[in-house]
Write a structure and sequence with these properties.
disordered N terminus; CASP/CASPL (chains A, B); homodimer; elongated; two-stranded antiparallel sheet; about 200 residues; mainly alpha
Chain lengths: ~200, ~200
């Protein structure tokens, strides 16, 4: 690997990494990526299960009413987004683990582009799902008196609490996906770093 | 600038940019950035104005009812997010324009980090605002019969149409911000590109 270190020396005003430092940074980035993908898989499955299997039955004047996640489209979107991101993270985590076992630390450009694009899509998808579900749960918790939309969480307390736990879990998933999308941007765009030098001080 | 070209030659298996190509790419990236920041500023102001000044008064049984954006918290969030992103884009656009006039094409690391972080925050902020407002407008347009939340757009048609135009404008803003955050990631992380070479084929 010493040849990589020699290629990595920069003649410009950008800090120079030595070979061993570079390997340590790469390994740390790789381990962080693997941990985050495992966290996303675990919490994505948990969030989908918490929301998807959440049911509460209430008897109101001898009529049985059932609250379930399909009553609100934002919750359906949240479950689908979590299942998608968990599956995606499982596949990416396997790729990441295999490449670590093989000892290869850098990506080639096409693969780096695929991973970067996938991570970006998943980060914005989960973020949008959490924002939409969060907005719906604010309506459910507080109502919207100006529009005569009444709060429903005083009727279905257990249901709402479990949905809240699912949304909290999804929030951690989406923040982890945001961090991962930064890591995959780093892994991709540093492959384009051949133009350091003179004009970097002018901005 | 020919010295930059010499520094930019890569000995690894990553495609080599020549000095003139590099300058052309940098200039194209810079112009795209400036155009996007102008688009975001214009459409951000438009979206905030469309939603913020949207009012419709209806007389129902001799009682005057007024629909305005403050009736729905998601629309208040959307207006604030658009004002923030428009102001941010104006400042960043000025910086971008000044640096183009000065002829400097590369960033230094601290500034690249500031721009990258700001762009990321703004991209996710506008995306969350659009998702939350979109979710609310689905409720307003279709209602949610399972929860006895009635649709309101059949009463306030003009109000809803104008809000819809504001959300569409915000969607373009958020997609432009996503593109910009990719550009600023490129501008930042290519400064770290000193480690191309041997192991990139193994993934």
């Amino acid at each position: 690997m010493s040849s990589v270190a020699v290629f990595g020396v920069s003649p410009g005003n950008v800090p120079v990494y030595h070979g061993s430092d570079l390997k340590v940074v790469d390994r740390k980035v790789r381990i962080t990526e693997l941990v985050l993908r495992c966290v996303i898989f675990g919490l994505g499955v948990l969030a989908a299960a918490l929301v998807g299997f959440d049911v509460q039955v209430k008897e109101i004047f001898s009529i049985q009413k059932k609250a379930k996640f399909t009553d609100m489209k934002a919750l359906v979107f949240l479950v689908i987004a979590n299942v998608l991101v968990a599956t995606y993270s499982l596949l990416q985590g396997l790729r990441c683990g295999v490449s670590m076992l093989r000892g290869s630390l850098l990506l080639n450009k096409p693969l780096a582009w695929v991973i970067f694009s996938g991570d970006q899509v998943m980060a914005y998808l989960t973020f949008a799902a959490v924002a939409a579900a969060g907005q719906s749960s604010v309506f459910a918790e507080l109502g919207q008196p100006e529009l005569q939309w009444m709060k429903i969480c005083n009727m279905y307390g257990k249901f709402c609490t479990q949905v809240g736990e699912g949304i909290a879990s999804s929030l951690v998933v989406s923040l982890s996906m945001v961090t991962l999308s930064c890591i995959s941007a780093f892994n991709l765009f540093r492959l384009y770093g051949g133009n350091k030098g003179k004009s970097s001080g002018g901005w």
